[in-house]
Protein: TM2 domain-containing membrane protein YozV
Organism: Evansella vedderi
Amino acid sequence: MNPKEALLWSIALPGFGQILNGKYVKGFLFIFLEVVVNVQANFNQIIVFSFLGEIDKAILHTNYQWLMFYPCVYFFAMWDAFKDAGGGKDKYASVPFVFCAYFVTVGLIFSYRMEIFGFLLGPMWLPILFVIPGLIVGVVVKKLLQKKAGF
């Protein structure tokens, strides 16, 4: 199996990468978790309001207690699909995924009030933007750990 293909399918929907890897129970568990968190957090409604530019309505409809689970489920499913497909053979392969989940969660925490260039981005756009620093920090930390370990 191609690790990048499994990763991309898992980005499309958590669980798809696992199903592609032949890990059906794990795949359907991730799909179930994604659907439960999505429904409980009102995430589809948040996405619609965010694309329409109605950020105040997106914030109002957000169940933050449920949406806080989403980054961990999402990035863990991506890492798991990538790993099961043979990617990330070194012991620090999970580090960028962990930092992305952490930074997206922090972005979600501040999404109801943080403005960038005078724009309130809300519970969808701000966490997405926080993937970038999470990935950068995660890759840098991974490389530092590899260097220290002599990789």
In short: Residues 3-149 form one domain.
